[in-house]
Every structure is written in C-alpha cells, then in structure tokens.
C-alpha cells in the first residue's frame, strides 16, 4: 500500500509517502513553521511525489492529521487531502495528532503509561492517557493542566507532545517522576503515515471535531478569525 500522509496541525508542514510493502517512507519532507502552511503545503507535496517517482493515481490512500491543532492549519491539510483524494479517486482518512505523538512509544511496547499532551493555552491541555500496550486510560479531552497531572495515579509515564515539558515541569512532587519527556513541536510524519495505513476509512473520517468550541464568534457582519485549537 502507498499512503500519502499530510500534517499541518501544529508547528510543521509535512508530507511523506509510506510504502507498507517496503516498510518505510520512500519520500518525505518536513518544514518547521508556525504560519504559512497554506502557501507551503501543495508545493511541498509536489516535491514529495516527484521524489517518490510516482503519480497521485499510484497512491492507495491519503491520510491527514485531524487535531488537536491550529484552526487554520488543520483545514489546510484536510482540504488538501480531500482534494487530492477526490481528483485521484482514492480514500482519505484522518489521524489524531495525539495518537500520532503517542504511536512511536506505544510501538516500542513499553510498560509505562503514555500521556500525549498538546498545549491548549489558558492553562489547559488537550491530552489522552494510554497504557503501555495502547489501551485507553483517559479518553482525549481538553482539561486544566491540573487534571492532566492527576494521571500520575497510573504510575510514572512517558510524556509526549508539545506540552510534554509543560507537564513535566509541574509534575506532582509526591508522584513518581516521568520515565521520559519527549517534547515535540509536531508528530513525526512517518507515524501519521503508519496510523493512516492501519485505520479503516469508515472509522476515521478526515474531518476535525472539537473538544472545545472556538473562542471567536461572528460579530454582526464581521467574521472574526478563530484562534483556538481543534481536536480529534
């Protein structure tokens, strides 16, 4: 299976093509950035496709991150994924950013629990907690940092995500300290691709859903630009 993976949810613009038969990405590119995804993504995808030496019709599936992430960034990636899927007549799937952060740790089959966390601002995080084998301990949610820290009850965790350091710096003194802290600005595109290959298109729609409503609201005839984070 050839999977085109796309991630524009956080502070990177990334795409890669996974060949599941070879068990590796045959082409990839990641550019760190906080803004400018809309102008960068399609040329980046074109370079990745050219580097892989294939056409869009050769793809079997397109995968894109669905959140948590920036309101605008998510739509850039999802719109591109849907457009390519429509033009190439291929299925498209969504992959959560929290799952993509956690996947490499779960893949190592470690025993410690894994807490995947993304900064939601206002002293809140988007987070989920899983056992070392991937079983859900806490479902994805947005919550005060204090609530995320209460996951220390599951034991010394492996912290991942762009809020991993935030949690580590405020970890309860009475609790066993984290076994590892993987602060990352964005998930590795290879894991977006592998998760995209593993999920069912029927069970993983390519659309954002919200753990909290956008802060901004239309006022009169003026549409304010939302600045909160979407999650899925």
Automatic annotation (TrEMBL):
InterPro entries: ATPase_NBD, Gcp-like_dom, T6A_TsaB. One of its GO terms (molecular function) is metalloendopeptidase activity. Residues 34-157 form the Gcp-like domain. It is an enzyme of class 3 (hydrolase). Signal peptide: none annotated. The keyword Cytoplasm does not apply. Residues 209-232 are annotated as: Disordered. SUPFAM superfamilies: Actin-like ATPase domain. Keywords: Hydrolase, Protease. GO terms for biological process: proteolysis; tRNA threonylcarbamoyladenosine modification. GO terms for cellular component: cytosol. This is Peptidase M22, glycoprotease.
């Amino acid at each position: 299976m050839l999977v085109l993976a796309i991630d524009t949810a956080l502070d990177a613009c990334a795409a890669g093509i996974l060949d599941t038969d070879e068990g590796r990405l045959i082409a990839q590119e990641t550019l760190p950035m906080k803004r400018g995804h809309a102008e960068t993504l399609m040329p980046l995808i074109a370079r990745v496709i050219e580097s892989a030496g294939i056409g869009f019709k050769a793809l079997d599936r397109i995968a894109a991150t669905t959140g948590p992430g920036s309101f605008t960034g998510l739509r850039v990636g999802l719109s591109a994924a849907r457009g390519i899927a429509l033009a190439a007549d291929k299925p498209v799937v969504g992959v959560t950013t929290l799952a993509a952060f956690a996947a490499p740790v779960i893949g190592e089959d470690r025993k410690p629990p894994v807490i995947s966390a993304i900064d939601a601002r206002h002293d809140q995080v988007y987070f989920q907690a899983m056992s070392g084998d991937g079983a859900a301990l806490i479902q994805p949610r947005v919550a005060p940092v204090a609530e995320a820290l209460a996951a220390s009850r599951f034991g010394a965790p492996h912290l991942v995500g762009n809020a991993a350091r935030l949690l580590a710096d405020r970890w309860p003194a009475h609790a066993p300290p984290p076994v590892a802290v993987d602060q990352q600005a964005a998930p590795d595109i290879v894991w977006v691709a592998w998760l995209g290959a593993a999920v069912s298109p029927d069970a993983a729609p390519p659309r954002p859903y919200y753990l909290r409503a956008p802060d901004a609201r239309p006022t009169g005839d003026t549409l304010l630009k939302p600045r909160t984070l979407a999650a899925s």
